[in-house]
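=== RUN LOG ===
request id: a7f3
mode: sequence -> structure
chains: 1
length: 379
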Amino acid sequence: MTVSERIVRLCCRWLPAHLSDWGEAMAREAGSIERPVAALSFAVGCVIWAAREAAAEALRQAMASGAGPIERETMMTGQYGWRLRDLATVCGAVGTGMGLIYLSAAGAPAQLLTMNAAALVAGLVLVLSLRGREPMDQPVVGPVTVAIGVILMLTAALGEEASGARRWASVAQVVLQPSLIGLPLLIVGFARSRDALTATGVVLAVVAMAWQPDRAMAATLVAGIGAVALITRERLAIGLTGVALIGFAVACLQPDVVPPTPFVDRVYRTALSTGMVAGIAVWLGTAVLLAPAVLGLARDRTNRVIYAAFGATWLTVVCAAIAGDYPTPLVGYGGSAIVGYLLATLALTLRERFPAATTAPEARPSGGSEADALRAAAT
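=== RESULT ===
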């Protein structure tokens, strides 16, 4: 099986059952293309199409109305939680697809489009390989957040330097920004499990962002941890918000004069002037990447702190890109944000499709009141 065929088969797992034959046909077509570049281009097109169809199906299911009380509870605490993580993955793919449209319309070099597409494929392979699992559940979440914090500290100490800032790491001649890859996962991981280990990871990240310095990601930490504190009112989250604010202040006191990079920075300010297609693609892709947080806050009240942290994180990254010369997530060039977004979806909750609460109650005892029948069903 070729790499392109494997990619297509992985993305076709999103498709609803009535489109499975189309997915199989696309996979066979990808496997029959001999030229690797042409096969990869076809595979990327299939990913975007599958993402669009899966997003439409997920939205139909998520916004379905008219169900009874038990069905609505099942949707919010069971089926819907599963679909929200799937929807977030699809949104990452769609947002990246919108970015590819922008880059093409803006005349970006083909190499930039290829790098974004490769980052999308890498992120999807990792996320889809963990589909149906809880990779950020206990006891994994704590060590993962600490590991991310250590990596960010190492980047600040030993990373690639530009204009006095150390935010980048070079891997196989590919320049990555570890904070965009790991920080969103760290923040949502803390929202999911607030304990000593995850708090340690947050503190390490705060120090690293102040040390690098990176005002945008330091502000992202303040927003993400602050959203957790606002909802939970827990002392740990409130204290860490104060620590993050200090780190942000330290980052702001240092010079941050990294020159803007074409197709990476100032994308929001130049997209519409580039062309109508480019402008629509950029703003539509941005709306898509925030959609999972909006839907999660509206419909999954049990896990709203997780979706609040996810939404605050990416909204702050977007606002930083609008206000200053910082990377534009998903719709601009940069594989780090693409992989980081998809990784962050792994920290969203995954629940069983049919919880025990949906089991039908026993028949009402004859001659008893409705209250007695309900008590009998509960026991």
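=== NOTES ===
The longest strand covers residues 165-171.
The chain has 15 helices and three strands.
=== END ===
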